[in-house]
Design a protein that fits this description.
The chain is mainly beta and 75 residues long. The chain has one domain. It has no helices and 6 strands.
Length: 75
């Protein structure tokens, strides 16, 4: 389990799966290769000195996840 400290906030866990479907939407298989995903958790928007709205990321990272459940706990 990987833990991250993010301004004392508990953030949701991550689950990733890879599925393959045919042209009719029928599930063909579930992949077992890792997925490279970006996890982003944002606080309330803020304004910069020019009055423009700016996103305030608490967490912004790219991680490899297996096709099973991976747990990323952000505290």
């Amino acid at each position: 389990m990987q833990q991250r400290q993010v301004l004392g906030k508990k953030l949701p866990n991550v689950e990733s799966t890879k599925n393959y479907f045919d042209g009719n939407g029928k599930l063909l298989s579930t992949g077992n290769t890792p997925n490279y995903i970006e996890i982003g958790m944002f606080d309330e928007d803020t304004e910069n000195t020019q009055g423009m709205t700016v996103k305030a990321p608490l967490v912004l990272e790219k991680v490899w996840t297996s096709s099973s459940r991976d747990l990323y706990l952000y505290l």
